[in-house]
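Appendix B, record 7
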Amino acid sequence: MACSSFRILSVVLGLAACSCSIAADLEVIYTTRAGDTLIGLEKQFLASPFGWKGLRTHNRIGSPMRMPVGTPLRIPESWLRVEPRTARVVALQGEVTLDGRPLVVDAKVPAGSVLRTSGEAFVTLVMPDESRLTVQPGSEARLDKVQGFRGFTGQNTQIHLERGRVETSVAAQRGPAARYQIRTPTTLIGVRGTAFRVGSDAVSQAAQAEVTGGEIRMSGASGEATALPAGYGLIARPGEAIPAPRVLLPAPLIKDVPTRFERVELHLAFPSVAKAVAYRVQVARDEHFTDVLMTGVYPTASARFSGLPDGRYWLRVRGIDEAGLEGFDASHAFTLNARPEPPVARATGNGTLAWNPAAEATAYRLQVAHDTAFTTLVAERDTDALTLDPALPAGDYQWRIASRRANGERGPWSDAHELNIRKMPGAASLTVYNDRARFAWPGEPGHIYDFQLARDKAFTDLLAEQRIGEPAVTVPLPPAGSYYVRVRATNPDGLAGPWSGIQTLRSTFFLPAWSLSSPAATSP
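C-alpha coordinates (predicted):
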Protein backbone atom coordinates (compact mmCIF):
# COMPACT_ATOMS: atom_id res chain seq x y z
CA MET A 1 0.00 0.00 0.00
CA ALA A 2 1.18 3.51 -0.74
CA CYS A 3 2.75 5.52 2.02
CA SER A 4 0.08 8.20 1.55
CA SER A 5 -2.49 5.81 3.07
CA PHE A 6 -0.66 5.47 6.38
CA ARG A 7 0.91 7.45 9.17
CA ILE A 8 2.72 6.20 12.29
CA LEU A 9 2.81 8.11 15.53
CA SER A 10 5.94 7.94 17.73
CA VAL A 11 7.68 10.57 19.83
CA VAL A 12 11.18 9.12 19.50
CA LEU A 13 11.32 8.73 15.73
CA GLY A 14 10.95 12.33 14.75
CA LEU A 15 12.03 11.85 11.11
CA ALA A 16 9.09 11.40 8.79
CA ALA A 17 9.12 9.53 5.50
CA CYS A 18 6.71 10.48 2.71
CA SER A 19 3.49 11.88 4.29
CA CYS A 20 3.81 9.84 7.49
CA SER A 21 3.55 12.03 10.59
CA ILE A 22 4.77 11.54 14.16
CA ALA A 23 2.83 11.53 17.43
CA ALA A 24 3.18 9.92 20.86
CA ASP A 25 1.05 6.80 21.14
CA LEU A 26 2.53 4.48 18.49
CA GLU A 27 -0.54 4.29 16.33
CA VAL A 28 -0.68 3.74 12.60
CA ILE A 29 -3.01 6.14 10.79
CA TYR A 30 -4.67 4.51 7.81
CA THR A 31 -6.51 6.70 5.31
CA THR A 32 -9.51 4.88 3.84
CA ARG A 33 -9.94 4.30 0.13
CA ALA A 34 -12.85 3.36 -2.07
CA GLY A 35 -14.28 -0.06 -1.18
CA ASP A 36 -12.72 -0.28 2.29
CA THR A 37 -14.74 -1.86 5.11
CA LEU A 38 -13.79 -2.47 8.73
CA ILE A 39 -14.24 -6.20 8.28
CA GLY A 40 -11.96 -6.13 5.24
CA LEU A 41 -9.34 -4.15 7.12
CA GLU A 42 -9.52 -6.65 10.01
CA LYS A 43 -8.71 -9.51 7.66
CA GLN A 44 -5.95 -7.53 6.05
CA PHE A 45 -4.15 -5.99 9.00
CA LEU A 46 -5.29 -7.04 12.45
CA ALA A 47 -4.12 -9.80 14.76
CA SER A 48 -6.49 -11.81 16.91
CA PRO A 49 -8.28 -10.98 19.16
CA PHE A 50 -8.46 -7.41 17.85
CA GLY A 51 -11.35 -7.29 15.42
CA TRP A 52 -13.26 -4.83 13.41
CA LYS A 53 -15.52 -4.01 16.38
CA GLY A 54 -12.60 -2.74 18.39
CA LEU A 55 -11.45 -0.74 15.40
CA ARG A 56 -14.98 0.71 15.10
CA THR A 57 -15.10 1.68 18.77
CA HIS A 58 -11.55 3.06 18.79
CA ASN A 59 -12.35 5.35 15.85
CA ARG A 60 -16.09 5.95 16.58
CA ILE A 61 -17.18 4.71 13.18
CA GLY A 62 -20.93 4.72 12.58
CA SER A 63 -21.27 2.20 9.74
CA PRO A 64 -18.54 -0.46 9.42
CA MET A 65 -19.53 -1.15 5.82
CA ARG A 66 -19.71 2.41 4.53
CA MET A 67 -16.87 4.79 5.29
CA PRO A 68 -16.16 7.98 3.38
CA VAL A 69 -13.00 7.87 1.29
CA GLY A 70 -10.19 9.69 3.07
CA THR A 71 -11.34 8.87 6.60
CA PRO A 72 -8.31 8.61 8.96
CA LEU A 73 -8.40 5.40 11.02
CA ARG A 74 -6.18 5.12 14.10
CA ILE A 75 -4.84 1.58 14.55
CA PRO A 76 -2.73 0.84 17.65
CA GLU A 77 0.50 -0.85 16.63
CA SER A 78 -0.11 -3.63 19.17
CA TRP A 79 -3.23 -4.61 17.19
CA LEU A 80 -1.33 -5.21 13.96
CA ARG A 81 -0.52 -8.68 12.66
CA VAL A 82 3.19 -9.23 13.20
CA GLU A 83 5.47 -10.90 10.64
CA PRO A 84 8.61 -12.11 12.46
CA ARG A 85 11.89 -11.59 10.63
CA THR A 86 15.51 -12.47 11.35
CA ALA A 87 18.89 -10.80 11.04
CA ARG A 88 21.83 -12.61 9.48
CA VAL A 89 25.51 -12.74 10.47
CA VAL A 90 27.61 -11.46 7.56
CA ALA A 91 30.97 -11.11 9.32
CA LEU A 92 32.52 -12.34 12.53
CA GLN A 93 35.92 -12.10 14.17
CA GLY A 94 37.01 -13.61 17.47
CA GLU A 95 34.85 -15.15 20.18
CA VAL A 96 31.17 -14.24 19.74
CA THR A 97 28.23 -16.05 21.33
CA LEU A 98 24.52 -16.12 20.59
CA ASP A 99 22.56 -16.95 23.75
CA GLY A 100 25.73 -18.49 25.15
CA ARG A 101 26.51 -20.63 22.07
CA PRO A 102 29.32 -19.96 19.58
CA LEU A 103 28.14 -17.94 16.59
CA VAL A 104 29.12 -18.55 12.96
CA VAL A 105 28.89 -16.58 9.72
CA ASP A 106 25.51 -16.88 7.90
CA ALA A 107 23.72 -17.82 11.13
CA LYS A 108 20.19 -16.49 11.54
CA VAL A 109 19.60 -14.23 14.55
CA PRO A 110 15.93 -14.05 15.63
CA ALA A 111 14.33 -11.56 17.98
CA GLY A 112 15.18 -12.13 21.63
CA SER A 113 18.74 -13.26 20.89
CA VAL A 114 21.57 -11.99 23.11
CA LEU A 115 24.94 -11.35 21.45
CA ARG A 116 28.15 -11.16 23.48
CA THR A 117 31.60 -10.34 22.13
CA SER A 118 34.92 -10.97 23.84
CA GLY A 119 37.57 -8.29 24.28
CA GLU A 120 38.84 -8.51 20.68
CA ALA A 121 35.76 -9.79 18.84
CA PHE A 122 33.32 -8.26 16.34
CA VAL A 123 30.12 -9.36 14.71
CA THR A 124 28.14 -7.63 11.97
CA LEU A 125 24.45 -8.34 11.35
CA VAL A 126 22.45 -7.37 8.30
CA MET A 127 18.74 -6.78 8.77
CA PRO A 128 16.07 -7.70 6.18
CA ASP A 129 15.98 -4.05 5.07
CA GLU A 130 19.82 -4.05 4.58
CA SER A 131 20.48 -2.01 7.73
CA ARG A 132 23.75 -3.12 9.33
CA LEU A 133 24.73 -3.41 12.97
CA THR A 134 28.30 -4.07 14.11
CA VAL A 135 28.71 -5.10 17.74
CA GLN A 136 32.13 -3.99 18.99
CA PRO A 137 34.55 -5.84 21.32
CA GLY A 138 33.49 -6.37 24.93
CA SER A 139 29.80 -5.73 24.27
CA GLU A 140 26.43 -7.28 25.06
CA ALA A 141 23.41 -6.52 22.88
CA ARG A 142 19.95 -8.06 22.65
CA LEU A 143 17.88 -8.06 19.47
CA ASP A 144 14.50 -7.24 21.01
CA LYS A 145 12.49 -6.95 17.80
CA VAL A 146 12.96 -7.63 14.09
CA GLN A 147 9.54 -7.63 12.52
CA GLY A 148 7.20 -6.27 9.91
CA PHE A 149 3.42 -5.88 9.93
CA ARG A 150 1.04 -7.56 7.53
CA GLY A 151 0.06 -5.20 4.75
CA PHE A 152 2.47 -2.47 5.81
CA THR A 153 5.83 -1.59 4.32
CA GLY A 154 8.80 -0.98 6.57
CA GLN A 155 10.43 -2.83 9.42
CA ASN A 156 10.42 -2.48 13.19
CA THR A 157 13.88 -3.11 14.67
CA GLN A 158 14.65 -2.64 18.35
CA ILE A 159 18.03 -3.35 19.93
CA HIS A 160 18.97 -3.21 23.60
CA LEU A 161 22.63 -2.39 24.26
CA GLU A 162 23.43 -3.47 27.81
CA ARG A 163 27.13 -2.63 27.65
CA GLY A 164 29.85 -1.84 25.13
CA ARG A 165 29.48 -0.20 21.74
CA VAL A 166 27.65 -0.71 18.47
CA GLU A 167 28.05 0.98 15.10
CA THR A 168 25.11 1.02 12.74
CA SER A 169 24.21 2.07 9.24
CA VAL A 170 20.45 2.28 8.97
CA ALA A 171 18.65 1.99 5.66
CA ALA A 172 16.09 4.74 5.04
CA GLN A 173 13.05 3.70 7.08
CA ARG A 174 10.13 3.91 4.64
CA GLY A 175 6.58 3.00 5.44
CA PRO A 176 4.27 3.89 8.30
CA ALA A 177 5.41 0.97 10.50
CA ALA A 178 9.11 1.52 9.93
CA ARG A 179 11.18 2.11 13.02
CA TYR A 180 14.78 1.52 14.15
CA GLN A 181 15.57 2.00 17.83
CA ILE A 182 18.50 1.33 20.10
CA ARG A 183 17.94 1.30 23.85
CA THR A 184 20.50 1.45 26.62
CA PRO A 185 19.69 1.05 30.32
CA THR A 186 19.06 4.80 30.52
CA THR A 187 18.29 6.13 27.02
CA LEU A 188 16.32 5.49 23.86
CA ILE A 189 17.59 6.40 20.39
CA GLY A 190 15.39 6.38 17.33
CA VAL A 191 16.18 6.97 13.64
CA ARG A 192 14.74 6.67 10.16
CA GLY A 193 17.94 6.43 8.13
CA THR A 194 21.42 7.42 9.29
CA ALA A 195 24.89 6.30 10.35
CA PHE A 196 25.71 6.52 14.04
CA ARG A 197 27.40 4.86 17.00
CA VAL A 198 26.08 4.09 20.47
CA GLY A 199 27.97 3.21 23.61
CA SER A 200 26.79 2.07 27.05
CA ASP A 201 28.95 1.94 30.16
CA ALA A 202 27.99 -1.03 32.32
CA VAL A 203 29.29 0.63 35.51
CA SER A 204 28.17 4.26 35.26
CA GLN A 205 25.14 3.49 33.06
CA ALA A 206 26.15 6.47 30.91
CA ALA A 207 25.18 6.30 27.24
CA GLN A 208 26.85 8.08 24.38
CA ALA A 209 25.92 8.64 20.76
CA GLU A 210 27.90 9.97 17.81
CA VAL A 211 26.16 10.77 14.52
CA THR A 212 28.15 10.78 11.28
CA GLY A 213 25.21 10.89 8.86
CA GLY A 214 21.54 11.84 9.06
CA GLU A 215 19.95 12.59 12.42
CA ILE A 216 18.80 10.72 15.51
CA ARG A 217 16.64 11.57 18.50
CA MET A 218 17.81 10.63 21.97
CA SER A 219 15.54 10.59 25.01
CA GLY A 220 16.22 9.82 28.66
CA ALA A 221 14.10 8.96 31.67
CA SER A 222 12.07 12.17 31.34
CA GLY A 223 10.97 11.20 27.85
CA GLU A 224 12.08 14.53 26.41
CA ALA A 225 13.85 13.92 23.09
CA THR A 226 16.99 15.74 21.93
CA ALA A 227 17.75 15.95 18.21
CA LEU A 228 21.30 14.99 17.32
CA PRO A 229 22.27 15.87 13.73
CA ALA A 230 25.29 14.67 11.77
CA GLY A 231 28.57 15.96 13.16
CA TYR A 232 27.45 15.99 16.79
CA GLY A 233 27.55 13.66 19.76
CA LEU A 234 26.66 13.61 23.43
CA ILE A 235 27.01 11.58 26.60
CA ALA A 236 23.88 11.11 28.72
CA ARG A 237 24.18 10.13 32.39
CA PRO A 238 21.44 8.62 34.52
CA GLY A 239 19.53 11.06 36.68
CA GLU A 240 20.68 14.06 34.60
CA ALA A 241 19.09 15.97 31.78
CA ILE A 242 20.44 15.14 28.35
CA PRO A 243 23.23 17.70 27.73
CA ALA A 244 23.67 19.89 24.69
CA PRO A 245 25.31 18.14 21.74
CA ARG A 246 29.07 18.56 21.17
CA VAL A 247 30.75 18.97 17.79
CA LEU A 248 32.62 15.83 16.77
CA LEU A 249 36.31 15.96 15.92
CA PRO A 250 37.16 16.11 12.20
CA ALA A 251 38.55 13.10 10.38
CA PRO A 252 42.34 12.65 10.53
CA LEU A 253 44.30 13.31 7.33
CA ILE A 254 45.71 9.89 6.45
CA LYS A 255 46.18 10.18 2.68
CA ASP A 256 49.96 9.97 3.10
CA VAL A 257 49.87 6.67 4.98
CA PRO A 258 51.63 4.10 2.75
CA THR A 259 49.49 1.95 0.49
CA ARG A 260 51.89 -1.01 0.74
CA PHE A 261 53.48 -2.61 3.80
CA GLU A 262 56.17 -5.29 3.74
CA ARG A 263 56.56 -6.21 7.41
CA VAL A 264 54.44 -8.61 9.46
CA GLU A 265 54.13 -5.96 12.18
CA LEU A 266 52.23 -2.99 10.80
CA HIS A 267 53.34 0.41 12.04
CA LEU A 268 50.70 2.98 11.10
CA ALA A 269 51.56 6.62 11.73
CA PHE A 270 49.34 9.57 10.78
CA PRO A 271 48.99 13.31 11.52
CA SER A 272 47.44 14.18 14.87
CA VAL A 273 44.03 15.84 15.21
CA ALA A 274 43.66 19.04 17.22
CA LYS A 275 41.96 18.42 20.60
CA ALA A 276 42.20 14.63 20.24
CA VAL A 277 43.42 12.82 23.37
CA ALA A 278 43.39 9.36 21.78
CA TYR A 279 42.60 7.58 18.52
CA ARG A 280 40.57 4.55 17.57
CA VAL A 281 42.23 2.60 14.76
CA GLN A 282 40.59 -0.31 12.95
CA VAL A 283 41.55 -2.68 10.15
CA ALA A 284 38.90 -4.42 8.04
CA ARG A 285 38.67 -6.57 4.94
CA ASP A 286 36.13 -4.31 3.26
CA GLU A 287 35.63 -0.61 2.62
CA HIS A 288 32.39 -0.49 4.63
CA PHE A 289 34.03 -2.11 7.70
CA THR A 290 31.48 -4.87 7.83
CA ASP A 291 34.28 -7.38 8.45
CA VAL A 292 36.48 -5.72 11.08
CA LEU A 293 39.59 -7.72 11.95
CA MET A 294 41.46 -5.58 14.45
CA THR A 295 40.85 -2.51 16.56
CA GLY A 296 42.64 -0.54 19.23
CA VAL A 297 42.64 2.77 21.08
CA TYR A 298 46.01 4.54 21.11
CA PRO A 299 47.16 7.62 23.06
CA THR A 300 49.19 9.02 20.14
CA ALA A 301 48.78 9.29 16.38
CA SER A 302 50.23 5.88 15.62
CA ALA A 303 49.19 2.25 15.92
CA ARG A 304 50.74 -1.20 15.64
CA PHE A 305 49.08 -4.42 14.53
CA SER A 306 50.49 -7.87 13.83
CA GLY A 307 49.16 -11.24 12.75
CA LEU A 308 47.38 -10.23 9.55
CA PRO A 309 47.90 -12.52 6.56
CA ASP A 310 49.05 -10.98 3.31
CA GLY A 311 46.23 -9.30 1.40
CA ARG A 312 44.32 -6.09 0.75
CA TYR A 313 42.78 -4.23 3.71
CA TRP A 314 41.15 -1.00 4.78
CA LEU A 315 42.38 1.25 7.58
CA ARG A 316 39.99 3.48 9.55
CA VAL A 317 41.06 6.15 12.04
CA ARG A 318 39.09 8.58 14.19
CA GLY A 319 40.05 10.97 16.97
CA ILE A 320 38.60 10.80 20.50
CA ASP A 321 38.02 14.04 22.43
CA GLU A 322 38.43 14.71 26.16
CA ALA A 323 34.81 13.72 26.83
CA GLY A 324 35.29 10.34 25.18
CA LEU A 325 33.28 11.10 22.03
CA GLU A 326 34.70 9.63 18.83
CA GLY A 327 34.88 11.84 15.76
CA PHE A 328 34.56 11.43 12.01
CA ASP A 329 36.29 8.54 10.27
CA ALA A 330 39.12 8.63 7.77
CA SER A 331 39.64 5.48 5.72
CA HIS A 332 42.50 4.31 3.55
CA ALA A 333 43.17 1.18 1.47
CA PHE A 334 46.46 -0.66 1.78
CA THR A 335 48.10 -3.93 0.81
CA LEU A 336 50.17 -6.16 3.09
CA ASN A 337 52.86 -8.14 1.27
CA ALA A 338 55.19 -9.34 4.03
CA ARG A 339 55.76 -12.98 3.13
CA PRO A 340 57.89 -14.94 2.68
CA GLU A 341 59.67 -12.93 5.35
CA PRO A 342 63.31 -11.97 4.75
CA PRO A 343 65.92 -13.81 6.83
CA VAL A 344 67.71 -12.28 9.81
CA ALA A 345 71.31 -11.27 9.02
CA ARG A 346 74.20 -12.60 11.13
CA ALA A 347 77.53 -10.97 11.94
CA THR A 348 80.36 -12.39 9.85
CA GLY A 349 83.95 -11.84 8.94
CA ASN A 350 85.24 -9.28 6.49
CA GLY A 351 83.31 -9.43 3.19
CA THR A 352 81.27 -12.55 4.01
CA LEU A 353 77.47 -12.27 4.21
CA ALA A 354 75.50 -14.66 6.41
CA TRP A 355 71.90 -15.08 7.59
CA ASN A 356 69.62 -17.40 9.50
CA PRO A 357 67.14 -19.69 7.69
CA ALA A 358 63.77 -18.06 6.96
CA ALA A 359 60.37 -19.76 7.08
CA GLU A 360 58.95 -20.68 3.64
CA ALA A 361 62.29 -19.92 1.94
CA THR A 362 63.98 -22.44 -0.32
CA ALA A 363 66.45 -19.92 -1.74
CA TYR A 364 67.55 -16.33 -1.31
CA ARG A 365 68.35 -13.31 -3.46
CA LEU A 366 70.96 -10.78 -2.37
CA GLN A 367 71.78 -7.30 -3.61
CA VAL A 368 74.81 -5.15 -2.80
CA ALA A 369 75.06 -1.44 -3.56
CA HIS A 370 76.86 1.66 -2.35
CA ASP A 371 73.60 3.42 -1.33
CA THR A 372 70.59 2.45 0.81
CA ALA A 373 68.22 3.04 -2.13
CA PHE A 374 70.06 0.36 -4.13
CA THR A 375 69.91 2.52 -7.25
CA THR A 376 73.11 1.11 -8.72
CA LEU A 377 73.83 -2.50 -7.87
CA VAL A 378 77.37 -3.66 -7.32
CA ALA A 379 76.40 -7.31 -7.04
CA GLU A 380 73.24 -9.45 -7.22
CA ARG A 381 73.25 -13.15 -6.42
CA ASP A 382 70.82 -16.08 -6.03
CA THR A 383 71.78 -18.83 -3.60
CA ASP A 384 70.32 -21.62 -1.50
CA ALA A 385 73.17 -21.39 1.01
CA LEU A 386 73.21 -19.37 4.26
CA THR A 387 76.50 -17.58 3.54
CA LEU A 388 77.97 -15.81 0.54
CA ASP A 389 81.20 -14.00 -0.23
CA PRO A 390 80.47 -11.49 -3.02
CA ALA A 391 84.25 -11.05 -3.60
CA LEU A 392 84.16 -7.26 -3.62
CA PRO A 393 87.07 -4.85 -3.43
CA ALA A 394 87.67 -2.89 -0.24
CA GLY A 395 85.01 -0.24 0.41
CA ASP A 396 81.76 0.60 2.18
CA TYR A 397 78.58 -1.07 0.91
CA GLN A 398 74.94 -1.75 1.75
CA TRP A 399 73.37 -5.19 1.32
CA ARG A 400 69.90 -6.65 1.58
CA ILE A 401 68.35 -10.05 1.18
CA ALA A 402 64.93 -11.54 0.28
CA SER A 403 63.47 -15.02 0.58
CA ARG A 404 62.20 -17.03 -2.38
CA ARG A 405 59.59 -19.76 -2.32
CA ALA A 406 59.93 -23.00 -4.25
CA ASN A 407 57.75 -21.52 -7.03
CA GLY A 408 60.19 -18.63 -7.46
CA GLU A 409 57.99 -16.03 -5.76
CA ARG A 410 60.14 -13.46 -3.99
CA GLY A 411 59.19 -11.84 -0.70
CA PRO A 412 60.04 -8.31 0.45
CA TRP A 413 63.59 -7.11 0.90
CA SER A 414 65.15 -6.95 4.33
CA ASP A 415 66.33 -3.67 5.77
CA ALA A 416 69.67 -2.50 4.43
CA HIS A 417 72.76 -3.70 6.33
CA GLU A 418 76.19 -2.14 6.30
CA LEU A 419 79.02 -4.07 4.66
CA ASN A 420 82.50 -2.67 5.28
CA ILE A 421 85.29 -4.43 3.48
CA ARG A 422 88.69 -3.33 4.69
CA LYS A 423 91.93 -3.70 2.82
CA MET A 424 94.21 -6.39 4.28
CA PRO A 425 97.62 -5.29 5.45
CA GLY A 426 100.32 -6.07 2.93
CA ALA A 427 102.90 -8.84 3.43
CA ALA A 428 105.31 -8.29 6.30
CA SER A 429 109.10 -8.25 5.77
CA LEU A 430 111.60 -9.69 8.26
CA THR A 431 114.83 -8.23 9.61
CA VAL A 432 116.87 -10.26 12.16
CA TYR A 433 119.54 -8.67 14.39
CA ASN A 434 120.94 -9.29 17.90
CA ASP A 435 118.57 -12.23 18.51
CA ARG A 436 115.60 -10.04 17.71
CA ALA A 437 113.17 -10.09 14.79
CA ARG A 438 111.70 -6.94 13.30
CA PHE A 439 108.54 -7.25 11.22
CA ALA A 440 107.38 -4.34 9.00
CA TRP A 441 104.48 -4.01 6.54
CA PRO A 442 102.81 -1.30 4.44
CA GLY A 443 100.64 0.97 6.57
CA GLU A 444 98.42 4.04 6.52
CA PRO A 445 98.42 7.14 8.76
CA GLY A 446 96.19 7.01 11.82
CA HIS A 447 95.77 3.22 11.80
CA ILE A 448 96.43 0.93 14.75
CA TYR A 449 97.82 -2.56 14.18
CA ASP A 450 97.43 -5.88 15.96
CA PHE A 451 100.40 -8.24 15.58
CA GLN A 452 100.38 -11.93 16.51
CA LEU A 453 103.14 -14.56 16.49
CA ALA A 454 101.97 -18.11 17.27
CA ARG A 455 103.09 -21.72 17.33
CA ASP A 456 99.93 -22.86 15.44
CA LYS A 457 97.93 -21.70 12.43
CA ALA A 458 94.82 -21.27 14.58
CA PHE A 459 96.70 -18.72 16.70
CA THR A 460 95.62 -20.35 19.94
CA ASP A 461 99.20 -20.73 21.24
CA LEU A 462 100.63 -17.20 21.06
CA LEU A 463 104.30 -16.33 21.55
CA ALA A 464 103.80 -12.60 21.05
CA GLU A 465 100.81 -10.26 20.73
CA GLN A 466 101.07 -6.50 20.50
CA ARG A 467 98.94 -3.48 19.53
CA ILE A 468 101.05 -0.70 18.05
CA GLY A 469 100.50 2.63 16.36
CA GLU A 470 102.94 2.06 13.50
CA PRO A 471 103.30 -0.66 10.83
CA ALA A 472 106.31 -2.36 12.47
CA VAL A 473 107.12 -4.38 15.57
CA THR A 474 110.22 -5.97 17.14
CA VAL A 475 110.10 -9.17 19.21
CA PRO A 476 112.68 -11.62 20.63
CA LEU A 477 113.61 -14.46 18.29
CA PRO A 478 112.01 -17.75 19.35
CA PRO A 479 113.89 -21.05 19.39
CA ALA A 480 114.55 -22.63 16.02
CA GLY A 481 111.36 -24.02 14.45
CA SER A 482 108.27 -23.01 12.48
CA TYR A 483 105.94 -20.21 13.58
CA TYR A 484 103.08 -18.18 12.15
CA VAL A 485 102.58 -14.43 11.79
CA ARG A 486 99.55 -12.27 11.01
CA VAL A 487 98.60 -8.58 11.21
CA ARG A 488 95.28 -6.68 11.40
CA ALA A 489 94.62 -2.94 10.94
CA THR A 490 92.01 -0.79 12.71
CA ASN A 491 91.10 2.50 11.01
CA PRO A 492 90.69 5.87 12.80
CA ASP A 493 86.92 5.24 13.14
CA GLY A 494 87.65 2.13 15.22
CA LEU A 495 86.59 -0.35 12.57
CA ALA A 496 88.87 -3.40 12.50
CA GLY A 497 89.76 -4.91 9.16
CA PRO A 498 90.51 -8.55 8.38
CA TRP A 499 93.58 -10.39 9.46
CA SER A 500 96.29 -10.58 6.86
CA GLY A 501 97.19 -13.80 5.17
CA ILE A 502 99.25 -16.14 7.38
CA GLN A 503 103.01 -15.96 6.89
CA THR A 504 105.35 -18.71 8.11
CA LEU A 505 108.49 -17.82 10.08
CA ARG A 506 110.95 -20.73 9.85
CA SER A 507 114.46 -21.70 11.08
CA THR A 508 116.19 -25.06 11.86
CA PHE A 509 119.29 -26.12 13.78
CA PHE A 510 120.96 -27.10 10.55
CA LEU A 511 119.98 -23.89 8.75
CA PRO A 512 120.11 -21.19 11.41
CA ALA A 513 119.02 -18.45 8.96
CA TRP A 514 115.43 -17.25 9.45
CA SER A 515 112.92 -16.87 6.60
CA LEU A 516 109.42 -15.42 6.28
CA SER A 517 107.11 -16.81 3.60
CA SER A 518 104.59 -14.96 1.49
CA PRO A 519 101.00 -14.86 2.81
CA ALA A 520 99.50 -18.30 2.32
CA ALA A 521 95.87 -17.99 3.44
CA THR A 522 93.43 -15.61 5.03
CA SER A 523 93.42 -15.96 8.80
CA PRO A 524 90.30 -17.13 10.64
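Remarks on this record: The mean pLDDT is 90. The helical segments are 38-45, 52-59.
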